[in-house]
Amino acid sequence: MNNNVKRSGLAFAVAAIMGGSAGAQAAVEVYNEDGTSFSVDGYFNAFYVNRDDKVSDVRNSDVKMGFLPNTIGFNFSKEMGELTLGGRSSFWTTINDSLQSPTDTSIDVRQLYATVDGDFGQVLIGKDFGLYARSNIFLDELLMGFGSPGAATGVSFGNIRTGYPYPNPSAQITYRSPDLSGFKVAAGIFEPADTTPGADSEQSAPRFEAELTYSTDLQGVALTAWLNGRHQSSENSTTEIDSQGLGYGLKASVAGFSVTASGFTSEGDVPVLISDGALASEEDADGYLVQGSYTLGANRFVVSYGETDSDQGDFETENTSFAVFHDVNSNFKLVAEYNMFEQEIKSSGARAADADTLAVGAIVMF
């Protein structure tokens, strides 16, 4: 893949987890000639999952995918004078529906965009992950693990709603700056969510999202810091909902040790993902995630704890995880994770979820 084309969200996440070494390993170059290149990348995984649901008093064994779905992506690049035109299309699929849809698995397209790169930076047009909470999730030490229980479909949620919301893929026009002495700026306009449904509902301005990141090395300590945010409005004849959020974090790594702390605060949304759907009010939410890891040879050991408190969603959650990642080689990884998740309904104090999950799996990527 041409070096001028910015790394995709999935490749960025994989590289971040693997200490930045996966950039060249995350794609297979199919064609590169006369300034035109085409490459393909893939990510495949499956986990044996044993979950003790203490609320329902049941224990289940399953074979599921991890937090990251199985994915195949196609990358394009063409040099045109002082510009480089690029694009990415990625297809994300689940293996969790093998008994519900035996021969017709669910597939979604989370990335379908074009890029224009030059000395000015990059402009992206199309569909990609959002900027708000982007680094919070992509720098999660457990991104390639399993994580907390998710929706009824059996999808695991990682640390979504136990430390950060999901930067769900959205239609967007986004600008990214070149590296400015370690600083990088991204800002864009996004399709706004209709949070005041009705015949007279309107969103007179787009959703705005931005992220500022800074990376440096201080006497052998690698530091990455970030700040991101989102704002949008939706209204009808009786209601106006302003939705906004602020995410932040810091990661420090030295001599095999890594510590990551991140958090967010928001209002006017349920801190899972932003989507069309009526909201009656603008209530608050906040959360944080603290993680530590140590890499020893081919093994990486991770401990993680996160919480989210949401008035809008009427829940409090906490999630504790322990994981071991073992690199068989640069394209094959084994994972073992133990996860303890709890959720309480704020308004009643009732226990909504209390589950311990053991997940053991394998990951193959190219």
TrEMBL record:
It comes from the Bacteria. Residues 13-344 form the Porin domain. Residues 1-26 form the signal peptide. It is a multi-pass membrane protein. Its main location: membrane. This is Porin. Keywords: Membrane, Signal. It is found in: Cell outer membrane. InterPro entries: Gram-neg_bact_OMP (IPR050298), Gram_neg_porin_domain (IPR033900), Porin_dom_sf (IPR023614).
